[in-house]
Amino acid sequence: MENPLHRSLQQNLQQIINEFGHSSDLNVRTFQVPGAADSPVAVVYMEGMTDTEKINDFVTHSLMSVNALNDALPPDPDAGTLFDFLQSRALSTGDTHILNQWDNMINSILSGSLIILIDGSTTCITVNLQSSNERSIMPPETEINIRGPKDSFTESIGTNISLIRRRLKSPNLWLESMNIGAVTNTQVAMMYLQDVAPQHLVEELKQRLKDINIDAILESGYIEDLVQDDAITPFPTVFNSERPDVVVGNLLEGRIAVLVDGSPNTLILPTTFSQFFKAAEDYYQRFDFTILMRIIRYFSFFIVILLPSIYIAVMTYHHEMIPTLLVINLLAQREGVPFPIVIEALLMELAFEIMREAGTRMPRAVGQAVSIVGAVVLGQAAVQAGIVTAMMVIIVSLTGIASFTLPGYTLTNAARLIRFPLILAASILGFYGIIIAMIMLIAHLASLKSFGVPYLSPFSPFDLEGQKDTIWRSPMKSAATRSHVKGRSLPSNPQVKTSSKSSYQNGRNE
Fold first, then answer.
1. How many other β-carbons are positioned within 10 Å of the β-carbon of residue 467?
2. Among 244, 264, 410, 432, which residue has the least CB neighbours within 10 Å?
3. Which of 421, 448, 451 lies closest to 437 in space, CA to CA?
């Protein structure tokens, strides 16, 4: 529904003041432009969001320059003539736009822009003079690398877009923006290579974003939860990264990046399971070393989800599978332990998760020290008190260490959740329970899709061409075409269709 501006300057200003509830940080200044006595001008901006030095340099000083305006303006100019002059000649900044809708003007004020209103005109000039009170570009905190770029995204969507364009200098890199959130009006942008990304995928994502009906978007996790195909799964079906080089690499593969203002985490979709095992520096090192590291990551993933359950199954039902001397040693450790082995494992896993969470939430200066000391002291004390065995401490510690080898932190969270059902299955049926649980897990993974792309591709359905960048990574010299830049390519399947979603009614609770 259109809501145009009023022709009366005083009426516009009064309505703006009323809508903002007479807020003290709303600055409204009315002044008379020399040579235009019949057309007063007003500037409106939010204090703290707009750079006051830029206002004085590029707006106020220009408008109040008597000689320049008197020489250029005709005698007694009307509102239209004054508006055209201010737009084309008076303002000494090029980042200006013309607005004629009330809602768009309010959004510009709330975004940190300055608004120029002229009496007798139903349009206004918006000048982008946002203050630069933002976090500087820092090294990434969650995606640590030894070799490669050290910059990461910030909370400013403009800065994040520039970091991507600085690496990908192509006119085919298209950007589409929209505001989502009935209350927050958060800017959300999608970036893609127009000649690489599938058009049906672009249209599907655009429609899903438009269908979102919610009060607030405070972080990219909101968008991730609202656009994913299947929310009833522990596995992440939307990849996120805080590294510009990772986003650019995925754009070259035909994927789409979604940036959210106020969040340093950029979403990448569609997503496959193997994507979470690839680190940024895999493409900056020799291919043979990269293959070794990826084998270790896949092996570590299976350690995280299977090692405690395998130990429980062996110690409870399958003693014959390990050497006799080792069985005697392990059983001797358990003589003074009052709990069944499954309770012992659950207690240790729970204690480790508590220490992990405490280390994350505590102040940075003491968090790491407390988590290390807590793990050593509690583990040693628990063994001496006869609550747990030394072998169980080793199993849980190795499981926790292996979880930190995965580059995709969201997949680590999924592995932490899956570990507990597998422990229960092993305690009930031993290896039979583990096998049944793994069959169910693989079947679930095979049923997942991310914007129509099978989650397990290129493993299932099997794609020989896609194997060049899963566990194996081909040498750079073998990449002959653009579609295999760095050995990576988006799984292509002509049978894949994206699943449409009619609407997302995840809005306010009434």
1. 16
2. 432
3. 421
User: What b/e readout covers 188-213, taking b as 16+ CB neighbours within 10 angstroms?
Assistant: bbbbbbeebbbeebbebbeebbeebe
Token pair recorded at residue 280: 């940024």
453 burial level (CB within 10 Å; 0-12, 13-18, 19+): buried
- Pairing assessment for the beta strands 96-99 and 124-127 based on DSSP bridges: antiparallel
Instruction: Give the Cα separation of 157 and 175 in Å (integer).
Output: 12
- Spatial contact of 108 and 115, defined as CB atoms under 8 Å apart: yes
Long-range residue pairs from 51-54, CB within 8 A, at least 24 positions apart, any chain:
51/129, 51/130, 51/131, 51/132, 54/93, 54/129
Q: Residue-wise over 88-114: b if at least 16 C-beta within 10 A, else e?
A: eebbeeeebeebeebeebbbbbebbbb
Residue 344: burial class (beta carbons within 10 Å; 0-12, 13-18, 19+): buried
DSSP state of 195: T
| Residue 276 host element (H or E) | none
Q: Count CB neighbours of 405 within 10 A.
A: 18
Output the pTM of the full model: 0.80
